[in-house]
Recover the amino acids of this structure.
């Protein structure tokens, strides 16, 4: 595991970003994350969640401020090295899976990093086992269901053994069983996980820490149970209580009234 | 089912063929690629009146289809765009080359039906084209595009060309899927129209290109984020004795037909 001076895997200081100079999408973002943490990034549509995620993986380096991944400052010189430490799971699995079979797709990353064929083989086996889809190894990607595609996408990242895994809306379009399965699998992964989602129940089940974004700024950063139970805070920033928290909230009110 | 969806299904069916478990699929791609090239090269090298030895050359596509368990019907259906061109080649030869070569039938002072050199050369040209198309089909039905590209790289074909072939193949699926979504969305809101109204073509094509570019960019970003540096690193495939014996036997057979059997026919 590669970390910064104080053991942080990800360090963001005063990060600002704009696509066009007058319109800042992200303003003064400060965030430090440590190995093994699981962080949910939440916020209404169009407040810069995906932009922030894309900055973290170096798909855009025209930002202001400090962004360090695994102790390396994000810049064009370090970008290839940094990407060895980060895995990004796209919202749309079809963008992630572009080779003929699952096996080829999962092996794509390790092969690009020059690992021996024995090591690639080992990594493919491990990654598929971690997401419980070993039996799909030789299956063609277009034949997979939505849930299987999502798990295969995660396997393509796990095979690179990243220090940080970033996931954009992982629970989208999954049925309840696949969603539950994904929660179990994510909770077994011990890398630093950063998950953006509008599915706040999903965040509650997978992330112990939560960051609320609005208008390009971090509004709240703390324990998920605390932020996701704060009805006023969520509603003030275009969100609603998660369904499970909503039930508990209603029960509490009923108890007080009763 | 829309035409585009049908074509996507056709492409998927072809991928199924490429991925199935069969000894011909498992052969080393380099051997299969070279064998196809050699077959096409020898087939087209026959003289324009060498019909008899050319008919014997059918042994390779016949073997490929029977032993490779490929459906000739599906093969011809998938090649339906190219086959008319093959038929068209040489169609004017009978008009230019009218020298009579032999007569069919005829007895008791009657001369029979004359067969001119033009007819023979037309049939020869058609057979050459037909065989070439069938051998190419055998290759693509038993070898994935990744494996073909792998073989091309072994042959030192410049990586830029190989990558372009691979990416065209990848993005073809992306673009076809986008086209299908757009046309389906249009048809569902214009149920009484037969096809797409010409006034909507510009907008739809523009949308199609923009969306395809977006999707293609996502795919490319996904590749970059997994260490893609401008070259596909492919799994090295081991060479077994059969990978050498199979193309070698066929090559010898082609040479025998081309240079030895031709003398007796």
């Amino acid at each position: 595991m590669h970390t910064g001076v104080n053991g942080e895997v990800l360090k963001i200081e005063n990060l600002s970003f704009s696509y066009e100079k007058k319109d800042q999408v992200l303003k003064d973002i400060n965030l430090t994350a440590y190995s093994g943490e699981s962080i949910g990034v939440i916020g209404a549509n169009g407040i810069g969640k995906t932009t922030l995620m894309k900055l973290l993986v170096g798909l855009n380096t025209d930002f202001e401020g400090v962004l360090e991944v695994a102790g390396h400052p994000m810049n064009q010189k370090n970008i290839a090295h940094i990407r060895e430490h980060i895995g990004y799971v796209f919202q749309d699995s079809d963008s992630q899976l572009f080779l003929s079979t699952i096996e080829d797709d999962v092996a794509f990353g390790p092969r690009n990093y020059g690992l021996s064929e024995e090591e690639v083989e080992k990594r493919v086996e491990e990654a598929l086992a971690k997401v419980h889809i070993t039996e799909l190894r030789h299956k063609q990607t277009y034949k997979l269901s939505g849930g299987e595609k999502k798990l295969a996408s995660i396997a393509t990242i796990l095979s690179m053994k990243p220090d940080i895994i970033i996931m954009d809306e992982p629970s989208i379009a999954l049925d309840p069983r696949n969603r539950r399965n994904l929660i179990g699998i994510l909770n077994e992964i011990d890398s630093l996980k950063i998950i953006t989602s509008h599915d706040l129940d999903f965040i509650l089940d997978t992330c112990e820490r939560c960051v609320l974004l609005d208008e390009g700024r971090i509004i709240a950063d703390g324990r998920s149970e605390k932020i996701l139970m704060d009805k006023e805070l969520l509603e003030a920033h275009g969100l609603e209580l998660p369904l499970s928290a909503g039930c508990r909230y209603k029960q509490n009110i009923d108890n007080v009234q009763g | 089912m829309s035409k585009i969806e049908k074509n996507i299904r056709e492409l998927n069916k072809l991928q199924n063929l490429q991925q199935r478990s069969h000894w011909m699929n498992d052969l080393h791609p380099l051997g299969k690629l070279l064998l196809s090239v050699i077959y096409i090269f020898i087939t087209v090298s026959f003289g324009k009146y060498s019909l008899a030895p050319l008919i014997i050359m059918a042994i390779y596509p016949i073997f490929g289809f029977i032993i490779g368990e490929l459906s000739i019907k599906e093969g011809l259906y998938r090649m339906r765009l190219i086959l008319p061109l093959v038929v068209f080649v040489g169609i004017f030869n009978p008009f230019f080359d009218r020298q009579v070569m032999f007569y069919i039938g005829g007895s008791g002072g009657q001369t029979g039906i004359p067969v001119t050199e033009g007819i023979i050369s037309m049939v020869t040209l058609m057979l050459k084209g037909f065989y070439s198309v069938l051998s190419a089909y055998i290759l693509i039905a038993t070898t994935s595009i990744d494996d073909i590209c792998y073989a091309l790289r072994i042959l030192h074909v410049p990586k830029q060309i190989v990558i372009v072939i691979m990416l065209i193949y990848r993005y073809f699926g992306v673009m076809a899927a986008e086209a299908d979504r757009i046309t389906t969305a249009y048809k569902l809101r214009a149920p009484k129209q037969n096809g797409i109204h010409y006034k909507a073509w510009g907008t739809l094509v523009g949308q199609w290109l923009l969306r395809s570019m977006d999707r293609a960019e996502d795919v490319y970003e996904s590749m970059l984020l997994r260490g893609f540096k401008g070259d596909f690193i492919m799994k090295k495939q081991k060479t077994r004795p059969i990978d050498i014996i199979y193309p070698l036997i066929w090559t010898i057979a082609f040479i025998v037909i081309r240079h030895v059997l031709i003398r007796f026919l």
Remarks:
- The longest helix of chain A spans residues 243-257.
